[in-house]
TrEMBL record:
<protein>
    <submittedName>
        <fullName>ABC transporter protein</fullName>
    </submittedName>
</protein>
<keyword id="KW-1278">Translocase</keyword>
<keyword id="KW-0813">Transport</keyword>
<dbReference type="InterPro" id="IPR027417">
    <property type="entry name" value="P-loop_NTPase"/>
</dbReference>
Length: 115
């Protein structure tokens, strides 16, 4: 990432940058990215599978289901119980926390198999 930033890019594309990092370092990295976005005006497009981290650090979120774009918007617009059910087959409770909107998964829809 240092090599990319040294080139003063306008856009940074990251695929799962927090994978294999302990929680402390995940938070540090995402705080750094947020700071770079705000201070340098750097656009950052990041793939994150941790929805709560995405909600905490993203201005906009895109939800994909089976390779199809399902919804795009602010965390409050797209992280709804209805969309979580449609996209991820889970029931969630939304929590308003000091760091913003977060989700608590309640149940997963049963797996279906065709016999």
């Amino acid at each position: 990432m240092a090599l990319a930033l040294a080139q003063n890019p306008k856009v940074l594309l990251l695929d799962e940058p927090t994978t294999f990092l302990d929680l402390h370092y995940q938070l540090q990295l995402l705080e750094l990215l947020k700071r770079l976005n705000r201070q340098r005006g750097l656009s950052i497009i990041t793939v994150l599978h941790d929805i709560n981290m995405a909600a905490r650090y993203s201005d906009r979120i895109a939800l994909l289901r089976q390779g199809q774009l399902w919804a795009v918007g602010s965390p409050a617009e797209v992280l709804t119980p209805t969309l979580m059910r449609q996209v991820f087959d889970v029931e969630v409770a939304l929590l308003h926390t000091p760091v913003g909107l977060q989700m608590c998964p309640l149940t997963a829809s049963p797996l279906t198999s065709e016999v």
